[in-house]
Every structure is written in C-alpha cells, then in structure tokens.
Design goal:
The protein is α/β, with parallel strands linked by helices and about 375 residues long. The protein is about 45% helix and about 20% strand. It has 13 helices and 14 strands. The strands form three sheets. Strands 1-2-9-10-11-12-13-14 form an eight-stranded parallel sheet, sandwiched between helices. A four-stranded antiparallel sheet has the order 4-5-6-7. Strands 3-8 form a two-stranded antiparallel sheet. A hairpin with a 2-residue loop joins strand 5 and strand 6. It is globular.
C-alpha cells in the first residue's frame, strides 16, 4: 500500500525508500478539456495515470474530487452567480452583506480572486458572524469512496483552511488592504484573526478523530507576502499550537510553501511541522537544495522538491535527471518526491515516467 510507504517516511525519517507521489489533477483535467491529452491516458482516472508514470496520487479531499468535510452555515445565505468568466459570491447575514468576485483561469478549472469580501472595517463584523456560523462534520462515507477511488495507489489527505494571517491576505482582504488595515484598524483586524482561529479549530477538532493521518495546513507561504517579522508575530505561535494539538491526536502535519522562502527556513524549522510541501528550489523558487539542507531541521520531511519548470519541454532533460539524483542523495529517508507544487498542464508526460526510472536506478545501487 502506497499510503503505508508515505506514512513510514514521516514515522521514521530514515531508510532508503523514496515514494514518488503527485498532484496532477490540473494536468489531466486541463489537457482533457483542451483535447490535448495523449491517447494512452484517455478514459483513465487519477490513480491510473499515476500508475502509468510509476507514481502514486496525493488525493486532497475537495480538490477536484468530493470532500469528506461537510461545511454548513447557520443564519447565513450564500449565493453564487456566474457572469462570463466571473464567479460572484454574495453572503447575506443579519449584520451585513459580503461580496467577492473570482475570475476563472486555466480552462475554467482554476480561479483568481479579483474582488475580496472585506473592503471596510464594517465588513469585519459581518465576516466574524459568517465564520462563527459555520458547522463542520466529517463524512466517513465520502472518505471511504475516496479511499476506494485511490485504489491503494496513493493517499487521501486534507488541506485545512489557511491560518488567520494568511487568510487575511489571500482570502478575505488581499495583500495591500490587509497590511493597511493592520495599521489603521489593528484591534479590529486582530479580533478578526481570533474569529478565523475559532473557525479553523472547528476543522481541526473534527479531523482529529478521523482516519486521515497526514494533514496539510495549506497556506501558500511566500516571504514576499509574509515577511519574517509578520511570520514570527502572527504565524509561528499559531503553527506551534496547531501542530501540538494535532500531534496529540496522532497526526502528521505539513505546510504548503510554494513561493520564495529562503529567509523563512529557520522559522519554518521552529513551527512544529513534520514536513514541508512544495518548497520550490531554483530555477522556480529562491532556494537551492543546499539552502534547504542547511536551513531546515534535519528531521523535516521534504514533500515534492522537483521544480515544475524542469517538466517543460524546452528545459534540458539532463537537468531534470541531475536534479532528481541530487535531491535523492541529500534527502533520502525523509523525502516524498513530487512536483513543486503540482504538475502543470504543459508538462511533458514522458518526463514524469523518466523520474520513476531514475528512482529505480537509485534504488538498485
């Protein structure tokens, strides 16, 4: 079972095994929609495509598949409307209304927020009402269906809602407004962060008793958005508290870092996490493998590691081969190899097959 192989890396942080585990949903769905999917993958589901590559599927519940978390609102009305490529969400509450707009991208399979719901200090009260109204349940039947869909070739896992500070800048306000409001309305914004924390713990408490063992804090950390100063003040204590809580319930915790992160490596090491997903080396990110080796706690599991750019046809295949050999040498025993952060739609599928061949050669040595 591939799940056992992956979890064993987190359990021991030693040994020679290197699972090859992918997030490739967007690659498959985008190429299918564009009519550019190679014939050998037509009619195949996610785990079957991974099997063709000698890899396994990292199945995030709710990410292009059904979710095993049921989320409901009490006393709140949520309406969604599509106008062209715009998706408009309106949330009506007894204390106010919130409106946000996202624009579809990548064949309509992804989206980019262009209007955030919190625009004024008055909107904070409304958002707090919405967050406190949420009820969360674990859907065991949905989880079992996802397990069956994985077919033993992968692992079912979860992204959590973002931490309070990351949620401010990426979900609710946008970067410029979040920083301005932290200066001008600090007390109200920090009150909102407490409401986000209460909201998040509804998810943690439900999942703590679930059969899912490997969890991801989400985040999309990038030092250009979250400086060491703000990370230390707002993120670090939060991560330490959440990791401690989930560890007490037998869970492994990773965090998603898919931006520039070199100045944050020491702080990530202090965060209580078991692993880092999608920490992206050069040429896509700002770190080298040597930076990662030097800057991170030696027991942190590296999840992914291969810069997505190396999968594109115009990059030399030799560069990919050398990179895989190097990352395997440096992090073998605490590495779950994949693409940082996921397989892009233009990726050369033959290179994904080649990675498994390189790993086999390494294993045979």
């Amino acid at each position: 079972m591939e799940e056992k192989r992956i979890l064993s890396v987190f359990a021991s942080r030693c040994g020679d095994d290197i699972p090859y585990n992918l997030r490739h949903e967007l690659w498959l769905l985008a190429n299918r929609k564009k009519g550019t999917l190679p014939k050998e993958y037509r009619g195949l589901d996610f785990p079957d495509v991974c099997a063709k590559w000698g890899a396994s599927w990292r199945c995030y519940a709710g990410y292009y598949v059904e979710n095993c978390l049921k989320v409901a609102y009490e006393g709140v009305e949520v309406r969604t409307e599509e106008r062209g490529d715009a998706v408009i969400t309106t949330i009506e509450t007894p204390v106010g209304t919130l409106r946000s707009v996202a624009r579809k991208t990548v064949e309509g399979l992804s989206s980019l927020t262009v209007e955030y719901p919190v625009k004024t200090a008055e909107d904070i009260k409304t958002l707090e009402y919405v967050l406190d109204s949420v009820k969360v349940e674990f859907d065991l039947q949905a989880y079992e269906r996802l397990k069956a869909r994985v077919k033993g070739n992968g692992i079912v896992t979860l992204f959590f809602p973002r931490s309070p500070f990351q949620a401010l800048i990426l979900n609710y306000m946008g970067i410029p407004r979040a920083y301005k409001m932290l200066i001008r309305e600090k007390e109200k914004v920090e009150s909102l962060m407490e409401a986000i924390k209460r909201y998040n713990y509804k998810f943690y408490e439900v999942v703590a008793g679930s059969p899912i063992t490997l969890l991801n804090l989400g985040e999309n950390i990038d030092v250009r958005l979250t400086s060491p100063r703000f990370y230390k003040k707002y993120c670090l204590p939060y991560y330490q508290e959440v990791c401690d809580y989930l560890h007490r319930h037998g869970k492994y915790v990773t965090i998603h870092v898919d931006g520039y992160a070199k100045p944050l490596l020491p702080l990530l090491s202090e965060s209580g996490i078991d692993g880092i997903e999608a920490l992206t080396p050069k040429p896509a990110g700002d770190v080298t493998l040597e930076d990662m080796e030097k800057g991170l706690r030696e027991d942190i599991v590296i999840v992914d590691g291969i810069p997505y750019l190396l999968l594109l046809p115009h990059y030399p295949l030799k560069a990919l081969e050398k990179f895989v050999e190097k990352i395997a040498e440096k992090f073998r025993g605490r590495l779950v190899l994949g693409i940082s952060d996921e397989v892009p739609p233009p990726a050369d599928h033959k290179r994904l097959k080649q990675i498994s061949k390189i790993l086999q050669k390494i294993a045979d040595k």
